[in-house]
Design a protein that fits this description.
The protein has 3 helices and 3 strands, in the order αβαββα. The protein is an alpha+beta fold and 167 residues long.
Length: 167
Amino acid sequence: MDSVLLIPKADRKKIHEYLFREGVLVAKKDMTVEHADIGTKNLYVVNACKSLNSRGYVRTQFSWQYFYYTLTAEGLDFLREWLHLPAEVVPSTHIKQQRSHAPPRNMMGGDEQPRRPPGQGRGRGGDREGGYRRRDMGDVNKEGGAPGSFAPEFRGGFGRGRGEPRS
Protein backbone atom coordinates (compact mmCIF):
# COMPACT_ATOMS: atom_id res chain seq x y z
CA MET A 1 0.00 0.00 0.00
CA ASP A 2 1.29 3.47 -0.86
CA SER A 3 1.86 5.89 1.95
CA VAL A 4 -0.26 9.00 1.62
CA LEU A 5 0.92 12.38 2.83
CA LEU A 6 -1.89 14.33 4.36
CA ILE A 7 -1.32 18.06 4.13
CA PRO A 8 -3.24 20.10 6.70
CA LYS A 9 -5.94 22.21 5.06
CA ALA A 10 -4.52 25.46 6.48
CA ASP A 11 -1.11 24.72 4.94
CA ARG A 12 -2.65 23.68 1.61
CA LYS A 13 -4.62 26.94 1.59
CA LYS A 14 -1.42 28.96 2.24
CA ILE A 15 0.32 27.19 -0.64
CA HIS A 16 -2.59 27.69 -3.05
CA GLU A 17 -3.01 31.35 -2.07
CA TYR A 18 0.68 32.05 -2.59
CA LEU A 19 0.72 30.24 -5.94
CA PHE A 20 -2.38 32.12 -7.10
CA ARG A 21 -1.08 35.50 -5.92
CA GLU A 22 2.38 35.13 -7.52
CA GLY A 23 1.64 32.81 -10.44
CA VAL A 24 4.98 31.09 -9.87
CA LEU A 25 6.58 29.22 -6.98
CA VAL A 26 10.15 28.13 -6.26
CA ALA A 27 10.93 25.37 -3.76
CA LYS A 28 14.30 23.94 -2.79
CA LYS A 29 14.66 20.16 -2.93
CA ASP A 30 15.22 19.95 0.80
CA MET A 31 12.24 18.43 2.55
CA THR A 32 13.52 19.14 6.07
CA VAL A 33 13.33 22.95 5.97
CA GLU A 34 10.47 25.42 6.09
CA HIS A 35 9.59 27.28 2.90
CA ALA A 36 10.87 30.85 3.31
CA ASP A 37 8.04 32.64 1.48
CA ILE A 38 5.03 30.61 2.59
CA GLY A 39 5.90 29.70 6.17
CA THR A 40 5.00 26.01 5.94
CA LYS A 41 7.04 22.82 5.55
CA ASN A 42 8.82 22.53 2.23
CA LEU A 43 7.65 18.90 2.08
CA TYR A 44 4.05 20.12 1.96
CA VAL A 45 4.84 22.69 -0.74
CA VAL A 46 6.57 20.19 -3.03
CA ASN A 47 3.90 17.53 -2.60
CA ALA A 48 1.00 19.95 -3.08
CA CYS A 49 2.62 21.20 -6.29
CA LYS A 50 3.31 17.62 -7.36
CA SER A 51 -0.42 16.95 -7.01
CA LEU A 52 -1.27 20.08 -9.00
CA ASN A 53 1.26 19.06 -11.65
CA SER A 54 -0.26 15.60 -12.09
CA ARG A 55 -3.63 17.26 -12.80
CA GLY A 56 -2.07 19.71 -15.28
CA TYR A 57 -2.57 22.82 -13.15
CA VAL A 58 1.12 23.73 -12.86
CA ARG A 59 4.16 23.22 -15.06
CA THR A 60 7.26 21.92 -13.28
CA GLN A 61 10.88 22.67 -14.12
CA PHE A 62 13.72 21.25 -12.03
CA SER A 63 17.19 22.75 -12.10
CA TRP A 64 20.11 22.87 -9.68
CA GLN A 65 18.18 21.30 -6.77
CA TYR A 66 15.23 23.72 -7.08
CA PHE A 67 11.70 23.08 -8.29
CA TYR A 68 10.16 25.88 -10.38
CA TYR A 69 6.37 25.75 -10.66
CA THR A 70 4.39 27.90 -13.11
CA LEU A 71 0.61 28.17 -12.97
CA THR A 72 -1.23 27.14 -16.16
CA ALA A 73 -4.53 28.55 -17.44
CA GLU A 74 -6.39 25.47 -16.14
CA GLY A 75 -4.65 25.86 -12.78
CA LEU A 76 -5.68 29.50 -12.65
CA ASP A 77 -9.34 28.51 -13.08
CA PHE A 78 -9.02 25.66 -10.55
CA LEU A 79 -7.41 27.83 -7.85
CA ARG A 80 -9.86 30.65 -8.47
CA GLU A 81 -12.71 28.21 -7.83
CA TRP A 82 -10.93 26.49 -4.89
CA LEU A 83 -10.18 29.83 -3.19
CA HIS A 84 -13.62 31.31 -4.07
CA LEU A 85 -12.15 34.36 -5.83
CA PRO A 86 -13.87 36.58 -8.42
CA ALA A 87 -12.78 36.50 -12.07
CA GLU A 88 -11.22 39.97 -11.82
CA VAL A 89 -8.48 38.78 -9.46
CA VAL A 90 -5.42 37.52 -11.37
CA PRO A 91 -1.87 36.55 -10.36
CA SER A 92 0.80 39.23 -10.39
CA THR A 93 2.58 37.51 -13.28
CA HIS A 94 -0.53 38.01 -15.45
CA ILE A 95 -0.72 41.76 -14.82
CA LYS A 96 0.91 43.83 -17.54
CA GLN A 97 3.08 46.54 -16.08
CA GLN A 98 2.62 50.10 -17.21
CA ARG A 99 5.67 51.33 -19.07
CA SER A 100 6.62 54.94 -18.86
CA HIS A 101 6.95 56.53 -22.24
CA ALA A 102 10.19 58.31 -21.42
CA PRO A 103 12.55 58.58 -24.38
CA PRO A 104 15.78 56.59 -24.22
CA ARG A 105 18.84 58.25 -22.80
CA ASN A 106 20.83 60.55 -25.08
CA MET A 107 17.76 61.49 -27.14
CA MET A 108 17.15 64.52 -24.99
CA GLY A 109 20.72 65.79 -25.37
CA GLY A 110 22.65 66.61 -22.26
CA ASP A 111 24.99 63.90 -20.98
CA GLU A 112 26.03 62.68 -24.39
CA GLN A 113 29.66 61.63 -24.68
CA PRO A 114 31.51 62.05 -27.97
CA ARG A 115 31.84 58.87 -30.00
CA ARG A 116 35.28 57.35 -30.36
CA PRO A 117 36.72 56.47 -33.74
CA PRO A 118 36.78 52.73 -34.52
CA GLY A 119 39.66 50.83 -32.98
CA GLN A 120 39.93 53.03 -29.93
CA GLY A 121 38.07 51.05 -27.33
CA ARG A 122 38.02 51.49 -23.61
CA GLY A 123 39.89 48.63 -21.98
CA ARG A 124 43.53 47.70 -21.61
CA GLY A 125 45.57 48.87 -24.55
CA GLY A 126 42.57 50.44 -26.24
CA ASP A 127 44.87 52.67 -28.23
CA ARG A 128 47.12 49.67 -28.91
CA GLU A 129 50.00 51.26 -27.01
CA GLY A 130 51.75 48.74 -24.82
CA GLY A 131 48.92 46.23 -25.10
CA TYR A 132 48.14 43.72 -27.82
CA ARG A 133 49.13 45.03 -31.24
CA ARG A 134 47.90 43.89 -34.57
CA ARG A 135 50.56 43.13 -37.15
CA ASP A 136 50.49 45.41 -40.13
CA MET A 137 49.64 43.58 -43.33
CA GLY A 138 52.59 45.11 -45.17
CA ASP A 139 55.16 43.87 -42.63
CA VAL A 140 57.34 41.49 -44.68
CA ASN A 141 60.08 40.95 -42.10
CA LYS A 142 57.98 39.05 -39.58
CA GLU A 143 59.70 38.00 -36.42
CA GLY A 144 58.58 34.70 -35.01
CA GLY A 145 56.14 32.32 -36.63
CA ALA A 146 56.86 29.51 -39.06
CA PRO A 147 59.41 29.88 -41.89
CA GLY A 148 58.12 30.29 -45.43
CA SER A 149 59.15 26.74 -46.41
CA PHE A 150 57.10 25.15 -43.61
CA ALA A 151 54.53 22.72 -45.03
CA PRO A 152 52.76 20.65 -42.37
CA GLU A 153 51.84 17.08 -43.29
CA PHE A 154 48.85 15.41 -41.68
CA ARG A 155 48.73 11.64 -41.63
CA GLY A 156 46.09 9.39 -40.18
CA GLY A 157 46.64 7.22 -37.15
CA PHE A 158 47.84 7.92 -33.65
CA GLY A 159 44.25 7.62 -32.36
CA ARG A 160 43.05 10.89 -33.85
CA GLY A 161 40.49 10.32 -36.56
CA ARG A 162 39.99 7.44 -38.88
CA GLY A 163 42.99 7.94 -41.15
CA GLU A 164 43.33 6.48 -44.63
CA PRO A 165 41.20 3.49 -45.64
CA ARG A 166 43.08 0.23 -45.33
CA SER A 167 43.68 -1.74 -48.48
